[in-house]
Amino acid sequence: MGISRTAVWKQLNRLAELGIEVESVKGQGYRVPGGLDLLDANRVREQLKPASSNLLREVRVLESVDSTNAEVLRQLVDGSDPRGLVCTAERQTAGRGRRGRQWVSPFARNIYLSLAWDFSEGASALEGLSLAIGVAAVRALKELNLGPVSLKWPNDILVEGAKLGGVLLEMSGDAAGQIQVVIGLGLNVSMSAATGSAIDQSWTDLDRVSGGRTPPRNHLLAALLDELLPLLQNFDREGFSPWRDEWRALDALADAQVLLHSGPDQFAGIARGVDDRGALLLETASGIRPVFGGEVSLRPAS
Ligand code: BTN
């Protein structure tokens, strides 16, 4: 290529800064194992169904960002229409998980997707939204023959008990009126064991699930948006109830003994699915009680 060894080193250092794994091949040079499957906003747009394309305002693809959710929240300026604003990134330097956890977000490996919408009925109209988002994500994966995927209340996406992805909703505006919501979806696509070792629970990715036959990430993003955008358009009017049966059919912990942690409190019971508002139905000695999201976590009791 007519460039010096030092110039090559500079580029290799830049790749290392981005966390991209590079192998050296004796006598030949360097290579990125598996190559790089990069994001491209035009490719995503081209692959969308026309109905979703009409609901999309903008797709931003960033090389690096603290968090795509944080980025979309920054973009929500008073009075502007947030609907259909989409942001994705090759990597997140401060990816956010639920309950203050970090979301491990290596470069060009996974999907980090955030999308804005607004609702006029305040935060209560959003009960169940994150559960419906989980169902929509599973629909997209099934459409691409990627599975078998299940859901763990409130919004973990699992394959055989290992975490494949998760949903984080963040809001701004008036909790009793006009509210702007950022829906964040993280999906592990092709993460190395070394990078994944930073995750403090059992995890998996689409490459493992599909035996390496995962479609390109632009294709995955389009399939996800094809499900998510129409869901958001209808959610204000319909709420969670049309999604409930499908959620229950995907419930990884249906009828399982569970422990619920809510702050300092802990409740044991049997998970009996969810109600029309997305609350977990926990069967205890004193009957079935609905439990809403927030800082509650759920673990198999055994
Ligand atoms: C969870 O803890 O299960 C939720 C994880 C949500 C991660 C996604 S990645 C895209 C968006 N940006 C973030 O910082 N977090 C969400």
Please tag this protein with its features.
globular; binds biotin; 9 helices; alpha+beta
Task: Describe the protein.
The mean pLDDT is 92. The N and C termini lie far apart (59 Å). It contains nine helices and 14 strands. The chain is α+β, with helices and mostly antiparallel strands and 302 residues long. Helix content is 29%, strand content 30%. Biotin binds at residues 67-69, 92, 95-98, 101, 103, 112-114, 156, 166-168, 184-186.
Task: Lay out the secondary structure.
Layout: H1 5-17, E1 23-25, E2 29-31, H2 41-47, H3 50-55, E3 58-65, H4 68-75, E4 85-92, E5 111-119, H5 129-143, E6 150-152, E7 156-159, E8 162-173, E9 179-187, H6 193-196, H7 206-210, H8 217-238, H9 241-249, E10 257-262, E11 265-274, E12 280-284, E13 287-291, E14 296-300
Parallel strand pairs: 3-4
Antiparallel strand pairs: 1-2, 4-5, 5-9, 6-7, 7-8, 8-9, 10-11, 10-14, 11-12, 12-13
Helix pairs in contact: 2-8, 5-8, 5-9
